[in-house]
Sequence to fold (301 residues):
Amino acid sequence: MALLEVKNIDKKFGKKIGMSHVSFNVEAGHIVGLIGPNGAGKSTTMRAITGLMSYSAGTITLDGQLVNFGNHQALDKVGNLIEYPSIYPNLTALEHLKLYAMDTKNPADFTELMHRTQIDGDNFGKRKAKHFSLGMKQRLGIAISLIRHPKLVILDEPMNGLDPQSVHDLRQLIRDLANEGVAFLISSHLLDELQKLVDDVVIINHGKIIETATISEFFSHDKTRWVFETTDNAAIVKLAKAHDWSVTIDDGHVQISGAENLQQVITAINAIDVQIKTVNTVTGNLEKSLLDMLATDDQGE
Fold:
């Protein structure tokens, strides 16, 4: 049995569909990316899982326990940071942790938690939260989500406002916790960063799940592409079409896919006496794979 099981969840806002037969699982110790465009249903799905929103059909279970708007018992095992953390301007970071741990019998060690989320340095100390940057508030929100030793952590845009070093450190923290058995469900528009982190992806569009896969399975949709800068791009386009390869031009570069290998393309280009200035191999790009999949799904609407 998966740690989190979401089965056939439906939710409407008047006539608008928020979720339609939404189903997916999250295994213990797995990092799952919930991905889709704005308004696709990501936040709605996360709110339903955390008991913040009712749903009209289906079931959500966490560790075998039912979760819904009227039954929050299982949520003792869940930490979450959805949208923006609830921060009180006149409290310090440590005071926030103590406040959110008041109804917890066995909270995480505050000193260790502050160290792991990097809220124990000089930038925090005795400073009140009203003086925190957005990135500092995000790190505090993540620390709050870990107070209860959760089995599942749900994060909506956790990298929002973080500088590159903090993003790197957050990725490492999430991976370390996953190695300890904690599961994560993460939504983020920073797909390049998400790609470095997740084990599985759940793609949602118009309130419907259109793909669930491991990250390697998902990238099987994305063919290897070779990007060329040449002395005659128009000739390269003509060449590619003659070989029945897919070809596009973007910002002065020719992008080819569908050939057996790079050497086949280079040999064909040399044969028409066109000089290759640069060539790069591109594969496994989460953003492009997502856009291609969404375009296909929208065409089927």
